[in-house]
Structures are given as C-alpha cells and as structure tokens.
Q: What sequence folds into this?
C-alpha cells in the first residue's frame, strides 16, 4: 500500500473492502479525568483479572461466525499494554485461527509510555505486531499532569526509540489539544516534539468534555472549559507544522507519512466491515451494527453462560448503509464517492448552501468537506437529507 | 326562586389575593361541593388557569345558602378575571350582578387592577362589600388595608369584612353579610322575557353554551327564543345552572343566572351582549349590550414548519370559539413565510394564546415582537392603519404618524414615586393626578404611549419597585408622534419580521441595543453574519456574529457510529426549532429580542 498517499481516494476505496478486527482491552491503572470509555479501573477493589478477561475474549472470538480473512487487527483500550506479550499473542492466535489473516495485514497495538520495556518491545515484534500507537497526549509536563497522565516526556521518546529498535514498521502517537492548562506555546512545543521524535503517524484529538467525567464535574464547579476558537487555532497550527514535516491528513484526527496510514482506522471511516470483541466493543458487518455489554460483570456473565455478549443490534437497510457510508466518509480527506445518496445530498438545498459557503465540494467524482473543523455541520445536514424515508 | 332570596355577585381581586380560595370556601361551606370533591381553584377549568393561578374566562356557579333561620337563599357567583388584559370580561360579568365582593390581601393592600375593577363595579351601580383576606398571615395589616379600602369606597372601617379564606375564618359571617347588604335583583317577572348573554363558550358535543342572566320574565326549555341583536330565532333546547357541573333545571326565573343551549354550533350567532327574548312575545327594547373588545397589541405568529400553516389556521379558528376577542388575518413575511397577524387584548393575552396554540394544538411557533396599531397620515390626505411595522409606507409618502395613548394608573408605596416618575418620563409619559390612599400608598395617573407599555414597562416597573407597584391602563386617544421605522439587516438582507417602529429620539439607542442583543442570541454560523440596524438606507448600528470555527467531534471511537449518528440527529432536531432567514439560522427567541433589551 505504500504506493498511495495517505489521502488517496484509491486507497480509501480499497479500505472500504478491507475486513478488520478490533479487540477492546479495558484495563487502566486508573481512569483519566476526561475519559468516558469503557474501562476497568485496576485501582478499584476486586476488579476483573487480566487472564480471566483474555480467556473470555478468546471464548467470544470462537462464537463469532465466519468473517475475514483479516486485513487489519487493532488492540485498543483502555490500555492494551497492561497485558503481557503472551496474552496479546494468544488473542492474535485466536483471531488467526478463527478468521485467517492476510500476509501483509496490519497488527496494531495502543501502548502507554509508562508500560514500555525493552522486553515488551521485543516480544511484540516476535508476536508479529507491525504497528504501535503511543498514548503520548502532550510533551508538556503541566498538560500531562492536567490530563491525569502517569508518564513523563522522556518515556515517550524512549518508547518511540524502543519500538523502532525492535523493527516495528509503523510507530504513531496520539496528542490531545485544547486543555485549558495548555498555552499556545505549550502546544507549539508538543507539535515540534511530535514531528521530531521520529514517528510515522500522529493522531490529534481535541479535548472533549463528556458528561459524567471528572473533567465535566470540574467545569460544572467553575473550572475553565476548553474554548472552541482556541482549539480551532491549535488544530490549524498543527496542520501547518505537521504538513511541512511531511505528515498528510487522511482523516480529521489522523495524519501519516506516506506508507504509514493506520489501515484499521482508514477502513473504519471508509465504511469497511469489522468484528469487535470485549466490553463495549462495536461490530459492523453484513449490514448489521451491534455492541457488547459495557459493564464487565455483565460481559463476563454472558460469556460464562456461553452466550454472545451482545446488547444492541441495529439491522440496516441498504439506504441506511449508504447514509452511514456518507456520514463516516465525509470525515476522510479523500472524501466519499458520489453514490446516489451522496449526489442527492450534493444537489439538496442544504448541500448547495454548504457549497456556496465553500465548506463542501465535489472534486474528481467525490464529495469532500473542505474544513475538517466544521465537519459535523456538514454531516448533520447530510444525515437529514439522506434519511432513508426521504 | 323568589327574587328577594336571590343574590348575584362577583368577586374582584388581584392575582394571588385569594379569590379562587374564597370561591372554593363558599362552595364548600354551603355544601355545593362535598369535601372529597374539593380541589383547588374549582372555578378555573383551563389547565393554564390552574397552572398560573389566574382566571382567564368568566364562570358562573350557583350555590344554595341555608340561613341560620332556615330560609334558603340562592347565590350566583360570577367569577371574573383579574388581569388588565381581560377587563372587558370583568365589565360584562358585572352587568349580570347586583353586588361585588372586593377582596384585598391583608399583607399586600390595594393593587391598581383591583382598584380599576372596583371603579368599574361602582360605575355599574353595584353594591360593593370590601373584604380583607389572609388576616391570619404574620405580615397581615388588616387595619391599614381596611383604611385604604375606606379611602377608596368611603364608609367606615367597621364595614370592612375580615376573613381568612384559607382557614375559613369569618366565612359564616360573610355569608350573612352577603344576604343583608347586597340588593335583590330588580326586574319584573310579568314583563316579556329579557335575558343578557354575558358569556359563551363552545362545547364539542353540545355546541355553543351561553351564560345568561334573566332580567325580566322567565326562560323555559322548549321556548322559541329570539336573539334581538342577531335577529335570529332558535329553540331553547336545554336550560340549567352550573354547580359548577351542569345541572338541568328546565327554567330560569327573573333574577336568575344559568346556561342556555340551543344546538347552535356557530359562536358568532350567539354573541356576548345580545338579549334573549321570546320569539312569540318579544320585548320591545333590548338590554344595553357591550362594546366589542378591541385588540390593542398585534404580533405575527408563524409556524416554524411552513407546512403547519393550515393547522395554525384551524387552531386559531378553534380557539376563537371560546375567545371572541381573538382577531387574526393571514400575513406573509419574506423572512418567516406564511402566518397570521393576530390582535390581542394585551401581553398576557398574547402569551396565553401562543401557549395554548403550542400546547393544545401541538404547534411550534415563531412570534414576532408585539406592536400597537399606528395610523399613518399620508401626503395624499388619506390614512393607513398599520398593525405591523413592515406595513408602514415609505417615509416619503407619510405626512405624520399617530400612535395610541393610554391612561395609566399605578398604585405604589410612596417611597417609589421618584423612581416611577423617572421611569415614566423615560417612556414618554405625561404626569397626571396623584392621590394618597394612605400616608404610605399613592395612586399615580399618567398618559403614556401604549407602545412603551407593551414592550417592557411592566417588568421594569416591577423590578424598580421590588414588585410593590401595580399597573392598570385603558385606551385614551391617538396622538401624532415623531416615529421612525428601524429595520434590521442580517447578512445585508433586511428582515421584515425584525422591523420596529420607535420614537425618533430613541432610534439610535434602540438600534444599538437590538443588534447587540441579536448578536448574543444568534448562534455562530459557518460564516460571519453582520447584523445592522438601519433607518431607511442609513445604518445606525452594526455587530458581527463571528463565524464558527469548530463544529466537530475530533475525539471519536470509530466503532460507535450509531451513537455518533444519534447525537448528530438530536443536534439537528434542536436546530429545526430555528428559522432559516436567508442562509442564517435564527432562533425563535430572536424574533422577540426587542422585548428583552430594556434593562440591559
């Protein structure tokens, strides 16, 4: 795939056909103040054991009907690096046995810098992992502290170096921007460090205040909230610096050097199919979306009864699938093909208005959002125009 | 019933002074309602009335009072609204009575609307019984309030009845006083029938139900009757009284109050104020009717969804069945599409109608800022009535504009006189008489442009007097004023629904305040939105809603598309309540922004 630019329409259309698997590994040393993901807080008494959970996921994989072979496997969390390399390898083996894995498939893992050791790196490589994504979040100790992260900036650099030394092909890192504790200078520093530290992929996420989180409680109690305009400034600055350093944006939050697109990520936004395992994981295949229990006790009980731990199933008509493809595809820099649904949106009053405002354009037979920071404004209109009952 | 044993009366009171509680207590004490059926505000049947604790529609209820000496009396309580917007309902209810109970809160004292309604009662020749209510409250000052009442009505403080409607204290005494002090109805049973229609309402199953007071003669079921003003003959299908449930009696004799059903479905046939007589032996002269209530405030009502226009028309038609004061005609706005120009009796009436339309008819409406009715005198010596600022002709063709003035009555603790004078002056008011009701309370009279009152005067008066001042007003006349139309431009396009007529001296202040308020109310869009205020082609104020720069969920777990889709759909649903004006999304509250700029 290295012959394509990360934002290539050809690559995006290929990704639409890819089949991926996602495994959710929910363990965290503790919950970060902004996080509302399905996690298991290890600091809580009597929390679920790693080994039991791995066994349950392997049992869940065995219950899944035929799918694959897989083009991409992604371990997300939570903190997947809380597991041992052996445990990770057993999960990869379960997927391989059940679905088959293509020769050049992507095998990717999220890791936290504080978990990284030389041995762990070596074991990952041996197990076949060819991509890691490092939860760096910031290179400013003040911001790391405000985000409740446990690592130092030095640990980020040594994780990147360690991964490279062990022959991991693609190394990426995540950044979170727009925390009120972050200044423009601090962000500039983080950007510079991120592009200079030697990674191939950078994901940038604006800090979002989710209801029910510690951050949300702090803000309700009077702490400063993230500012939209400041976040837009940060995003634009990142685009400029990273762009000059050779990173290409292929999705709103994702930037890669040529040949280093995260395939699982691209496939998700290109409306590819994926199976997903573990608590709170979401499947999408054969016109059906379903999700697993978010609570670990319910998940474990279902598996123990020999039942699939699914709670919500949404069967999608063809028109609904087209709508979803349009919705997710508009997040891609390559845009989305001009299907009948996309064309109807482009021709609608709302579509025309967005084009007049230079927010949406048709280029080379694709529909593309020109300002990623305003994507939701476009997608909301796309959803109402492409509703199946129209 | 023997005329000498009938007493017909109203209860006049300010909001929260306990009128409905007193009515409830009278019903309960005379056994009209068993305690188990008792619920609060028995006479207020509309949901809105019960929620807001106000009376909107008049109501009439019969109770039988057994005097301690065993002689049965018949009371007809005619409940009346207390708010200034509904004073026409009060005046016609009073026509059906011989007496009025003037109820005043022992802690609050006399309020302007109570006073205005008390004057109405006195002018109608009614016997007024002054009552101080809530005498058991810790803050009660029954003696002071009794003195206020005496200074208005004359007489002595001994004649003022002291009660607590809530606990029932003094209610037995009051029942006796009603019999003793209120006169029996006049009228001659042997004369041809004359009955006054003092209210009517529409019942889905029975058609129009008229509330009538028999002045002369007797009305029986099966009678062939004639409505003297309408010139229509009908059959009296059913006759009865309300307790407050309907009770068929078959007849109403001289002096009695009850209902009449004719099977007529058209509310316009049986008009309030008409006289019912017998078709076979008609009376020679009709009773004095009422003046049609005249709408004083106008506002545009537009469905947020243009497809709902016909539903809005049907809803207005239905509301009018029970509210003949509601006037409307179709109106087209470039900004808001098809809707109606609706005339209201006042701001509360406007608010209530809008709320009923949205609630009872499930409509989503945009209302424009209220306006009064102007008269534009044109250079060609003709004149044009202007109910909507957008209808004002070009300034070149106008020689002058006249606006309605009202006589304003304010009652206030005397410490606020200075504050109120200042406020009234800032609203172009002219000072009239000032009378002290007591050493602490004063009655102020002013002439003011109605337009200044309908905007925010009442709220400002309340906030500057910590809620102590009360207000009443009545139409006076039209006067020429130096008025201009201020237009508002969004994205360089004039938005007709935002146009307002204001006094020239205030145009700049208004324009600046209005664009500032709109900047706060209009959410950021995908492009800069300039907001300008203009008189003719001259821009007098400008603000800009800066373009939105971030509208995206950048942190996103890709797998959970369902949740993300639902979130976006919900957000879109919220935006539906906004109105597209050109390419700008404008929230509904922006169209009444003019009401909110007063104190900022």
A:
């Amino acid at each position: 795939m290295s012959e394509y630019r990360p934002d290539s329409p050809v690559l995006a259309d290929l990704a639409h056909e890819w089949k991926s698997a996602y495994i959710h590994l929910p363990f965290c040393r503790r919950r970060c103040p902004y996080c509302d993901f399905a996690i298991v807080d290890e600091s809580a008494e009597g929390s679920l054991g790693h080994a039991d959970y791995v066994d349950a996921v392997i049992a869940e994989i065995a219950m899944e009907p035929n799918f694959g072979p897989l083009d991409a496997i992604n371990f997300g969390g939570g903190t997947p690096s809380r597991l041992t390399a052996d445990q990770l390898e057993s999960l990869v083996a379960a997927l391989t046995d059940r679905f088959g894995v293509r020769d050049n498939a992507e095998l990717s893992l999220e890791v936290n810098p504080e978990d990284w050791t030389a041995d762990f790196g070596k074991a990952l490589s041996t197990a076949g992992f060819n991509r890691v994504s490092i939860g760096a979040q910031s290179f400013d100790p003040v911001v790391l502290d405000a985000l409740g992260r446990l690592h130092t900036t030095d640990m980020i650099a040594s994780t990147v170096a360690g991964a490279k030394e062990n022959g991991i092909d693609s190394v990426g890192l995540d950044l979170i921007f727009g925390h009120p504790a972050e200044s423009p200078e601090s962000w500039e520093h983080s950007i510079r460090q991120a592009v200079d530290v030697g990674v191939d992929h950078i994901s940038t996420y604006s800090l979002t205040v989710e209801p029910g989180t510690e951050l949300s409680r702090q803000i309700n109690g009077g702490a400063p909230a993230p500012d939209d305009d400041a976040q837009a400034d940060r995003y634009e600055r990142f685009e400029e610096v990273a762009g000059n350093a050779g990173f290409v944006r292929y999705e709103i939050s994702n930037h890669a050097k040529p040949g280093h697109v995260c395939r699982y990520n691209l496939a998700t936004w290109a409306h590819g199919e994926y199976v997903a395992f573990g608590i709170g994981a979401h499947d999408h295949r054969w016109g059906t979306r379903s999700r697993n229990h978010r609570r670990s006790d319910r998940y474990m009980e279902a598996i123990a009864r020999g039942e699939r731990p699914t709670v919500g199933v949404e069967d999608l008509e063809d028109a609904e699938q087209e709508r979803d493809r349009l919705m997710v595809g508009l997040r891609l820099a390559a845009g989305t093909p001009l299907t009948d649904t996309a064309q109807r949106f482009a021709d609608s009053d709302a579509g025309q208005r967005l084009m007049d405002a230079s927010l949406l354009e048709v280029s080379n037979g694709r529909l593309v959002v020109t300002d990623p920071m305003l994507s939701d404004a476009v997608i909301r209109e796309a959803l109402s125009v492409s509703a199946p009952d129209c | 019933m023997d005329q000498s044993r009938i007493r017909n009366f109203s209860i006049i009171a300010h909001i929260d002074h306990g009128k409905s509680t007193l009515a409830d207590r009278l019903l309960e004490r005379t056994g009209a309602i068993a305690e188990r059926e008792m619920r609060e505000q028995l006479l207020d049947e509309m949901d809105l009335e019960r929620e807001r604790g106000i009376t909107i529609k008049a109501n009439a209820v019969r109770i039988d009072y057994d005097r301690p000496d065993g002689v049965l009396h018949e009371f007809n309580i005619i409940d009346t609204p207390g708010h200034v917007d509904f004073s026409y309902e009060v005046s016609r209810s009073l026509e059906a009575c011989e007496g009025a109970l003037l109820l005043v809160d022992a802690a609050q004292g006399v309020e302007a609307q109570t006073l205005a309604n008390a004057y109405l009662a006195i002018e109608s020749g009614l016997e007024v019984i002054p009552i101080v209510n809530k005498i058991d409250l810790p803050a009660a000052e029954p003696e002071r309030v009794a003195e206020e009442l005496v200074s208005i009505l004359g007489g002595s403080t001994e004649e003022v009845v002291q009660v607590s409607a809530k606990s029932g204290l003094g209610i037995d005494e009051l029942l006796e006083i009603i019999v003793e002090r209120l006169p029996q109805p006049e009228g001659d049973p042997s004369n041809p029938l004359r009955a006054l229609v003092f209210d009517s309402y529409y019942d889905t199953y029975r058609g129009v139900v008229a509330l009538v007071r028999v002045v002369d003669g007797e009305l029986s079921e099966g009678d062939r009757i004639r409505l003297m003003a309408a010139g229509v003959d009908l059959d009296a299908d059913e006759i009865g009284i309300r307790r407050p449930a309907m009770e068929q009696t078959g007849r109403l004799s001289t002096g009695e109050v009850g209902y009449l059903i004719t099977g007529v479905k058209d509310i316009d046939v049986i008009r309030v104020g008409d006289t019912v007589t017998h078709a076979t032996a008609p009376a020679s002269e009709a009773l004095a009717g009422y003046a049609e209530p005249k709408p004083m405030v106008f506002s545009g009502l537009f469905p947020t969804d243009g497809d709902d226009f016909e539903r809005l028309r049907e809803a207005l038609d239905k509301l009018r069945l029970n509210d003949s004061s509601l006037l409307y005609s179709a109106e087209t706005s470039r900004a808001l599409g098809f809707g109606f120009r609706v005339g209201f009796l006042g701001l509360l009436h406007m608010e209530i109608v809008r709320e009923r339309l949205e609630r009872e008819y499930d409509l989503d409406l945009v209302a424009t800022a209220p306006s009064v009715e102007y008269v534009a005198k044109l250079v060609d010596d003709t004149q044009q009535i202007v109910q909507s600022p957008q209808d004002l002709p070009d300034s070149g063709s106008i020689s002058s504009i006249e606006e309605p003035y009202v006589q304003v009555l304010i009652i206030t603790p005397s410490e606020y006189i200075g504050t109120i004078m200042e406020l009234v002056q800032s609203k172009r008011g002219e000072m009239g008489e000032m009378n002290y009701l007591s050493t602490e309370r004063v009655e102020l009279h002013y002439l003011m442009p109605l337009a200044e009152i309908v905007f925010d005067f009442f709220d400002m008066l309340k906030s500057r007097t910590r809620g102590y001042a009360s207000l009443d007003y009545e139409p006076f006349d039209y006067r020429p004023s130096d008025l201009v139309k201020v237009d508002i431009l969004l994205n360089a396009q004039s938005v007709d629904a935002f146009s307002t007529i204001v006094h020239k001296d205030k145009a700049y202040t208004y324009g600046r305040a209005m664009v500032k308020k709109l900047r706060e109310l209009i959410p950021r869009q995908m492009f800069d939105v300039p907001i300008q205020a203009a008189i003719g082609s001259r821009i007098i104020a400008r603000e800009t809603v800066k373009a939105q720069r971030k509208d995206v969920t950048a942190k996103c777990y890709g797998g959970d598309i369902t949740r993300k889709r639902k979130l976006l759909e919900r957000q879109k649903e919220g935006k539906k309540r906004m109105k597209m004006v050109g390419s700008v999304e404008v929230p509904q509250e922006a169209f009444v922004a003019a009401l909110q700029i007063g104190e900022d």
Notes: Chain A touches chain B through 48 residues (CB under 8 Å). Residues 318-385 of chain A form one domain. The first helix of chain A runs from residue 9 to 17.
